[in-house]
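Re: the pair you flagged

First of the two:
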Amino acid sequence: MRIPPTADEVERLFAGWRDDLATCRKFAPAARNYAVARLSADVGLRINEARMLDLDDVRWDLGRFGKLNVRFGKGSRRSGPRQRMVPLINGADRSLHWYVEDVWGHFGADHTLPGAALFPSERRPSGRAGTEVFRTALAQATARHLPTWAGKLTPHVLRHFCASQLYLTGMDLVSVQELLGHSWIATTMRYIHVHRTHIEDAWTAAHQRAENRWRGLTQ
């Protein structure tokens, strides 16, 4: 069971990580790693999916918030890459705007070249950063700012966090399934971790909605 940290804990992690960016020795790679972790927490992107994104895969013109053209999604039962469009909801549009406008240019990559990586390698701007770079950066940030989760918070756990938070705030399971790129909704259900009072909270909310509708009819 990859039970994720709470929303307050994740916010504490990213707040501390943001503060580090102001004083870190190598701003561009540190900010890149932060941006990738945010995509895992905000829209449930897998690390390899993020790694394989091109700059042109950010489609600001699509939808209300923009979308990511994820071309290397994980296929089911070894069926090969599965493409999907991921909307930049949940604040992902803001963090990605910041990264593209204020960070990407520091790598010295040529945005006119086809296939320019969204998350370039520090040493080879024409190449891509490796998945272990992102995993290590998250582990180090967790050890500094969320030590109770040191050694336990991985990019995959952030996917569980994303799914759980979106479900708790009202997104239906089918939409969460589509966002995460799952072939089966049963897989998505294993990503949803709710609070112990979730049933009681849902019952209370349902009765509140019914009461509000009744008041509207009697007024």
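Second of the two:
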Amino acid sequence: NELRTLVDMLGYPVTNTLMGLGAYPASDRKFLGMLGMHGTIEANNAMQNCDVLLAVGARFDDRVIGNPKHFAQNERKIIHVDIDPSSISKRVKVDIPIVGDVKDVLAELISMIRESTAKPDAGALAEWWKTIEAWRSRDCLNYDRGNKDVIKPQYVVETLWNMTKDTDTYITSDVGQHQMWAAQYYRFDEPRRWINSGGLGTMGVGIPYAMGIKLAKPDSEVFTITGEGSVQMCIQELSTCLQYNTPIKICSLNNRYLGMVRQWQEIEYSGRYSHSYMDALPNFVKLAEAYGHVGMLIERPQDVEPALREARKLKDRTVFMDFRTDPTENVFPMVKAGMGITEMLLGSEDL
């Protein structure tokens, strides 16, 4: 609440890291989307080109700022709030360190701004927003929405968001392309609705996370967005779902690859694929049924929404939805390893 109050008082743009999504509502115009390796043009460019950067409990990790030398090229004042003094100036030299609990620090900041006669420069802020809107107009999260032949993974996430955005819904994910698409296309308006392992990169956590949430929040809808590689790491927990009666909904974006590994091999290694393809997949529908749950196979774009609707109706059942998605789809924008956050690949045309 303090973060939202501060941003709304100042009228400044705001971005969230992968783990902070929902801290500021994605539906608000001031939200620029996620930043970092798979962040938006507007978020990454604003981070690089702003005059003052207020970092609230963020770590400036490599997935967020890319190459620190590139990040340091632009002169800006950096204010860093963190409860852990060892996190401050660890990767990025900051100008104003503030060690403290972010809730307390933000409450004090709000109080000081209210007491001060100083106000943001309306003209300068308007010009800054004009620059940001020019970046935003490039619509970097656009994809082939009209494709009728193959399911685009982004479409599954976007459809799920459209159906559940006005309900108390929790999303968990495993690790890989599906994790990034969930972060990009499910627009979180509330905090702690997005549960994933972040930089730990732990495959297999999606189902266990979802079960835990369903036990704690039995009246909420809980979806796991996963891939056919990650989900097999802890597929046996489908047994636990039945044992403890945690009726979760599993959306597997099945592209028959370890997608993020395949993407890096395509981009960094000229398409020399090694151990990233999946030629020995189980029949997930039969597997789900064997565990006592409902299994669905979805192969056509027009069947995505009906399948999700049917799954949501089955409130007391765990449903495994095997979405056969485009195996060639990549996550864009993308900042390659060692590059700066504004040195983004925006699509296959940049490869």
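Residues 91 and 303 are 46 Å apart (CA to CA).

-B.
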